[in-house]
Amino acid sequence: MAYNKNRSNVITLKQALEMAESHQFAFGSFSPRYTPMIVPVLKAGQAMNSPLIVQISEKELDRYGITPKEFGEQFYAQLERLSITVPVVLHLDHTKVLSMIADAIDAGFTSVMIDASEKPLQENIAITKEVVDYAHAKGVSVEAELGMIGTTDFIETDKDEELYTDPQEAKMFVDATGVDALAVSCGTAHGVYVVRQPKIDFARLQAIRALTPVHLVLHGGSGVPAEMMGHAIRLPGGGVSKVNIATDLEHSFLEAIGREERMTNTECKALSADLLEQGRNAVEQTVSEKIRSFLGSKDFAGMYQAR
């Protein structure tokens, strides 16, 4: 079945972050990981009157057994079924394969992330510029990464190496690529903080902002204290406008259904209706709480609808 991919409330990342930065809140970029979990993310945004981003990464697609087409179809189907009216971005997170970026754009994703951060600077610039040229021609926003963001669970990225983003390189990178948003490495990590504790290098964020107007993205939002995140969002001159949250959602879901190990998307869809509802309720509560006390985006949906 074909779904309407031209809904007025499905916006690009560039449109989303312009408003977020000017009003000092952040978009939650929520990764459901399982297609049945798209429902509670959307329901939480609608109930909180909050704009939001629904995302999935290349490694998550591979790990959970989903295609961009399947994810996109479920996203647009649930927008219609649930009568979602708040502004939403459909985003492809950390991706290295250009063919998958093309597939996602064909599937109705309005934003993509090219991650060539492990490459030397000039190679990262060249790869990112290629994606920017391709995506912008189709009206799709592009996020990239400079520096290397650490990880603890290897679901979103495959290395635990961390290299903080250099502000001067950030200016060069943004000027050369025309990227819409930049994921920066400044102390957070993907996954669960067990031994190391989350930290944010606020001075580094401010130095990057002083040199470039690009919208800033913070990956590894799960587990970061709300007060710390709030400071990063409301930095003078513009702080973080997009925060990625994935691990907290999956943990809420698995805990609610009494399971410790991750499953495939097929296994998730095969759960009993009662278990699935328990998991969905837990995810909706988690997303709602993030919107309310972590991101500050509650009741900002109308800012877009009034434009």
- The shape is globular
The third-level CATH topology is TIM Barrel
Q: How many structural domains in the coordinates?
A: 1
- Give the CATH H-level superfamily: Aldolase class I
- The number of helical runs is 13
CATH architecture: Alpha-Beta Barrel
Spatially, the strands of the biggest sheet line up as 1-2-3-4-5-7-9-10
Strand content: 5-15%
Would you report the number of β strands?
10
Indicate the mean pLDDT.
89
**Residues in helices, as a percent range:** 40-55%
| Secondary structural class | alpha/beta
Tell me the distance between the termini.
31 Å
Using only C-alpha atoms, the radius of gyration works out to: 18 Å
Question: How are the elements arranged and paired?
Answer:
Blueprint: H1 13-23, E1 27-30, H2 38-47, E2 52-56, H3 58-64, H4 68-81, E3 88-95, H5 98-106, E4 111-114, H6 121-136, E5 141-146, E6 150-151, H7 167-177, E7 181-184, E8 189-190, H8 202-211, E9 215-218, H9 226-233, E10 240-245, H10 247-256, H11 265-269, H12 273-295, H13 301-305
Parallel strand pairs: 1-2, 1-10, 2-3, 3-4, 4-5, 5-7, 6-8, 7-9, 9-10
Helix pairs in contact: 2-12, 6-7, 7-8, 10-12
Name the features.
alpha/beta; globular; 307 residues; TIM Barrel; 13 helices
Give a nutshell description of this structure:
This protein has 307 residues and is an alpha/beta fold.
Give a structural overview.
With 307 residues, this protein is α/β, with parallel strands linked by helices. The chain has helices spanning 13-23, 38-47, 58-64, 68-81, 98-106, 121-136, 167-177, 202-211, 226-233, 247-256, 265-269, 273-295, 301-305, and strands at residues 27-30, 52-56, 88-95, 111-114, 141-146, 150-151, 181-184, 189-190, 215-218, 240-245. An eight-stranded parallel beta barrel has the order 1-2-3-4-5-7-9-10, surrounded by nine helices. It has a two-stranded parallel ribbon with strand order 6-8. It has a single domain (13-305), classed as TIM Barrel. Strand 1, helix 2 (38-47) and strand 2 form a beta-alpha-beta unit. Helices cover 45% and strands 15% of the residues. The chain is globular.
